[in-house]
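Inverse folding, one chain.
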């Protein structure tokens, strides 16, 4: 290619050229291998470095040779050189590894400089790795990264400004190609032909870029595939499959995770292949904090592999199926680790690192008609979806599955949706979902019975528990939880006496599985609220809040916070500050964790959040789940005996408005006195009349006066 068309080939390389020259001048270095990924610029950098103006250099390009005989011929052709520069040694690595030691022994003043994607494995060999151009931008958004600058220069100098490209898209292209100069030059030709946006889409979808338009470009540099596949003809199928699996993820892959994802392949074989792929510059590796190797793949290598998958749909399906099976195993492993307190932090890190791949695997199973496997992964990782604020996505995915033509998968999806609705306090939804998913005698009948009980259908709940499978047909967990649900449904506080609820509390607190334990404590608390015992309900909800690791149980914690707020609400207006703060904190947590907000409360009084109440001004300090729970546990317990007056059901604001009504003030006068809108007064007064069962303002005044007289 004429030099007049070339852009500066050594962009950002001056320091590396100087370092290579320093190594060549070091008498201890006999063999210097300049290595790196294909197309990164090894040859030009090394050629520049060996030309120091002093040493006698003999250069031999081995790109088209099939054996190493040319090396000996180059030595015998004349005086022994100071530097022997062997370029493009990739295909002759093994032969040269046998020849070079003898050559160095014969020529003690000789330094051999080679370029190769692979190391020779010689004891005397020194490796210098050439990295791609940086793709990270400077703090100035108008200043392109070095890789983007090379791409822009290629467009300008080779195509004479025939096209223009948005810098942001150019940066994306440079990053997708890993900053490899050869790939950027090929992309420049594609941009001149298709434009930047279409070029980026081709790269991401695995479509090939057009070949280099320059007639003197070596065949091995004309396309991405020819560049990467030159020198890798001896790559075995297992190594290629390993690369193809790794390319489906952007995750830095831990060795143990690679082995797990390959579904049973021999460990030693995989370890050997990974080491070989690193040696071939097809993978990069580093040592992680746990001492394991982690592996990363260049965008250029990833582009090649995407093209392989795009060109061979059958192979792509096989690789994706293997990957999905491995991710399914990983999900099961994470689920087991999450249940082990000692391993839970590692599980959380693992889930965070692989979150995108886990989501993609669930989508893959759904598309492939394997909804049952997708449901299993969603169920195993439900804690992950909550902690990652992806609960809404998980529910939406299950809703789609519940409408699938596969009746088994649809039933599984509705059952899990019903279970999640029950956990989060959406009982009417739970009844509908579980009714359509659960066989009347199935093992999940206990959840359906509890959901029916929560919506007030006690008769159906009792019928369900009476028809439940016998104890011998259930697991120990199902038996323990089921028996407690049955006791709760048949619970009658007036008959069981004061100690009956405490027995149920202790039984629920003793359940070994945390979700069962917290779910049934919440159910008992709601039962006590309906029975008119808010002081006991408050105690039960606070017991649930004392569970360790609250963020792990965000759903159950927010339900318990709402339970405490309702208990205070029933107890009377004296506790309105606590009602507002707890309700607001629970609402905030549902938003923060992307949990559905409640729409009905099934007969349990719901504390209204009055936007103009002074207590709301303090809500802003409750900004995380730990702080909300600490506040709930610091509030005073409810007394054993509570006043049973209708007036006690009013909030402080409502009581204040009712007293002003007693003074004969109009709504406008009250609004002016309190500094609030008139419509707010109307809304409060409507709630006052409902709570006091008063048909008019006059009746409200009479009730308030009567209460004042009784108090006096």
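Residues assigned per position:
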């Amino acid at each position: 290619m004429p030099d007049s068309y070339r852009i500066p080939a050594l962009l950002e390389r001056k320091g590396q050229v100087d370092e290579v020259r320093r190594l060549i001048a070091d008498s201890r270095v006999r063999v210097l291998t300049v290595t790196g990924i294909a197309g990164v610029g090894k040859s030009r950098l090394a050629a520049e470095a060996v030309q120091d103006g002093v040493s006698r250099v003999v250069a031999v390009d081995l790109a088209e040779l099939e054996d190493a005989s040319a090396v000996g011929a180059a030595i015998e052709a004349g005086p022994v050189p100071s530097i022997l520069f062997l370029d493009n040694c990739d295909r002759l690595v093994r032969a040269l590894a046998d020849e070079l030691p003898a050559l160095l022994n014969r020529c003690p003043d000789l330094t051999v400089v080679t370029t190769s994607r692979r190391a020779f494995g010689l004891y005397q060999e020194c490796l210098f790795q050439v990295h791609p151009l940086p793709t990270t931008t400077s703090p100035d958004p108008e200043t392109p990264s070095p890789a983007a600058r090379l791409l822009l220069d290629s467009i300008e100098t080779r195509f004479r400004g025939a096209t223009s490209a948005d810098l942001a898209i150019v940066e994306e292209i440079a990053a997708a190609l890993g900053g490899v100069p050869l790939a950027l030059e090929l992309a420049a030709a594609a941009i001149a032909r298709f434009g930047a946006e279409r070029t980026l889409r081709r790269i991401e979808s695995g479509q090939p870029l057009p070949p280099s338009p320059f007639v003197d470009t070596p065949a091995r540099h004309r396309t991405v595939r020819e560049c990467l596949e030159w020198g890798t003809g001896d790559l075995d199928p297992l190594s290629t499959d390993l690369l193809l699996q790794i390319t489906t993820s952007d995750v830095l892959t831990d060795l143990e995770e690679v082995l797990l994802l390959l579904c049973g392949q021999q460990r030693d074989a995989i370890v050997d292949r990974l080491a070989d792929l690193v040696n071939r510059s097809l993978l990069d590796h580093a040592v992680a904090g746990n001492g394991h190797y982690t592996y990363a793949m260049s965008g250029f290598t990833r582009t090649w592999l995407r093209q392989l998958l795009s060109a061979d749909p059958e192979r792509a399906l096989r690789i994706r199926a293997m990957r999905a099976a491995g991710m399914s195993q990983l999900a099961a492993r994470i689920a087991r680790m999450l249940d082990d307190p000692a391993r839970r932090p590692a599980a959380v890190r693992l889930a965070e690192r692989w979150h995108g791949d886990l989501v993609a695997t669930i989508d893959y199973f759904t598309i492939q008609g394997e909804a049952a496997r997708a449901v299993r992964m969603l169920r195993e990782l439900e804690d992950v979806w909550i902690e990652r604020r992806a609960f809404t996505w998980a529910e939406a995915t299950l809703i789609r599955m519940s409408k699938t033509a596969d009746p088994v998968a649809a039933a599984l999806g509705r059952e899990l949706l019903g279970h999640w609705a029950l956990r989060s306090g959406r009982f009417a939804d739970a009844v509908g979902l579980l009714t359509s998913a659960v066989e009347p005698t199935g093992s999940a009948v206990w959840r359906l019975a509890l959901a029916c009980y929560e919506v007030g259908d006690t008769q159906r709940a009792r019928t369900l528990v009476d028809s439940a499978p016998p104890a011998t047909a259930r697991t120990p967990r199902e038996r323990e939880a089921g028996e407690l649900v049955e006791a709760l449904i048949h619970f009658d506080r007036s008959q069981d006496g004061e100690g009956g609820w405490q027995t149920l509390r202790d039984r629920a607190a003793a359940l070994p599985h945390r979700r069962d334990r917290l779910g049934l404590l919440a159910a008992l608390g709601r039962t006590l609220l309906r029975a008119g015992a808010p002081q006991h309900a408050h105690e039960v909800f606070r017991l649930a809040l004392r569970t360790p690791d609250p963020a792990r149980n965000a759903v159950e914690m927010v339900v318990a916070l709402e339970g405490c707020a309702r208990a205070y609400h029933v107890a009377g207006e004296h506790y309105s500050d606590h009602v507002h703060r707890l309700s607001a904190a629970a609402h905030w947590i549902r938003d923060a964790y992307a949990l559905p907000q409640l729409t009905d409360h099934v007969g349990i009084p719901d504390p209204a959040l009055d936007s103009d109440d002074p207590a709301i001004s303090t809500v802003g300090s409750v900004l995380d789940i730990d702080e909300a729970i600490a506040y709930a546990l610091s509030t005073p317990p409810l007394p054993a005996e509570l006043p049973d007056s209708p007036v006690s059901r009013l909030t402080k604001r409502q009581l204040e408005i009712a007293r002003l009504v007693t003074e004969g003030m109009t709504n406008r006068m009250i609004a002016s006195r309190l500094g609030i809108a008139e419509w707010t007064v109307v809304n409060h007064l409507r709630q006052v009349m409902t709570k006091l069962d008063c048909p008019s303002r006059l009746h409200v005044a009479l009730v308030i006066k009567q209460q004042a007289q009784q108090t006096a």
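The longest strand covers residues 31-35. Residues 1-8, 600-606, 608-621 have pLDDT under 50 and may be disordered.
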